[in-house]
Write a structure and sequence with these properties.
By secondary structure, the protein is an alpha+beta fold. About 30% of the residues lie in helices and about 35% in strands. A three-stranded antiparallel sheet has the order 1-3-2. Strand 2 and strand 3 form a beta hairpin. About 10% of the residues are buried.
């Protein structure tokens, strides 16, 4: 499965702040099926959408 990274956010956000989740929610409100995943190697949250080729096959 391929995913397209829309945005990345450092994992060290202030307590109570969820910028990656807020960004993904805004993309979902626009009709884009965005989700948040954690990239452990870079210690960042990534907002991703499923790649177009996978969406066509599904």
């Amino acid at each position: 499965m391929s995913e397209k990274v829309l945005e990345r956010f450092p994992a060290g956000a202030p307590r109570g702040s969820w910028p990656a989740e807020e960004y993904a929610a805004a993309r979902r409100a626009e009709g884009e099926p965005a989700t948040v995943v954690m990239d452990l190697e870079s210690d960042a949250f990534l907002v991703v959408v499923q790649g177009q080729e996978d969406a066509v096959r599904a």
